[in-house]
Amino acid sequence: MNYLKEFMEIFGEISRIPRCSGNEKLIAEWIMKRADDNGFETKTDKAGNICVKVDTGSDNTVVIQNHMDMVCEKDSGVNHDFSKDPIKMTIKDDWLKAEGTTLGADNGAGMALAFLLSEENSPKPNLELLFTVDEERGLVGASNLEKHMLTGSTLINLDTETEGEFIIGCAGGRDTLISKRYDFINLDTTEMFKLEIKGLEGGHSGLDIHKNRLNAIKVLGEMLETVNENYPVYISDINGGTAHNAIPRSAFAEFMVEGEITRKNIEDTLAEFDSGLFDLKTVKNRGSGFLTQDDSGQIVSMINEIPHGVYSYDSKMPDKVETSSNLATIKIENSSFICLVSQRSSNPSNLNNLTALIEGCALKAGAEYETGNEYPGWLPEPDSEIVSIFKNTYSEIFGKAPKVDVVHAGLECGVIGEKFENMEMISLGPTIIDAHSPTERLSLSSVEKVAGLLRRVFEKTA
Question: Zinc among the record's keywords (predicted)?
């Protein structure tokens, strides 16, 4: 059966609805209306999670789980308001992508598949379509999921991004928020410099952290340190990154330096850096004040000292990342420098060691820190019934064995599994490249494969 027409109709509806993390009201209304139009019952909880009940008369109930929200990133210069504008999509060959923004296939593709298969007239178990809120900012909806929402003891998560790969375990993690209040001073200048890092590749801070992609905040820190070594820097504003789980693609700093220093002088100082990485220009002094040279240097040092990237690989599986850190966001707000760092690990001891290093960077600068938003890992159960069913069914359809793996990313399965102790779980999905970045794209042929696989599994579990 060709599922693409139906999938594109549903995914197209989803993509016309704003759904950045924390702004799920309209997509939640769409879910409730579509469920009602199909005669499906719904449940909600205080967090805003929704469970759509599809009663087929079966003795078996399976949970299909997705999150409603998406990471909202766009290319520099793209005129797109994520609070109201629909995602503009294009198709080239097998790939569906957006025009200059994230596509939202993470996790909109899974949402569309859930409704497509639940509405299809074919054998299936009772389904509970679970849609959680605010996953991208720290698994918030799953963490606050109430026990009354689910009755099924088997869960299929559709948030994995490689067709033919089944995820049966994931890393846990936490965030550290660093802040320090500073006094700003007035300086006699009408202009200042703006140094901007933009257009980097970015990516998912779990799935792509081992690819050594540049972090715009770290690049900015290195450049500011180089300038400061030659000319005393006074920072007025600094900002970078968008989300705890996205490798920062852009960052900027507005600053002045002492003396009659021109833009050409600064550019010469930065000659060792790739000129394609940054843009330097003069801008008007907005009158918001400046940090002292010492305080500016302290912030730059903190940015450069906070660890980012792979901290350790798994001793038993050397090609698997065990522990990592993402220097995710920085900003100045209400006279305070605020920095968010996200850590992941499948090893609690190394997670604690990495967190201690980050907290030590804050203490060295005399800053306050708060470590929290912790979420559990998901311990693999390779011999569970649902994993066996999917492995066997995949081999029957495609004539080859699927890849069964664990992933260095936080999946809601870990949180949900902690709440529902006897839940058997598996995660899969169509192929998505470069999630969390404007180059995100979805393989349409993989959508058909996943839909066909799920349909066959439903027939076996009806």
Answer: yes
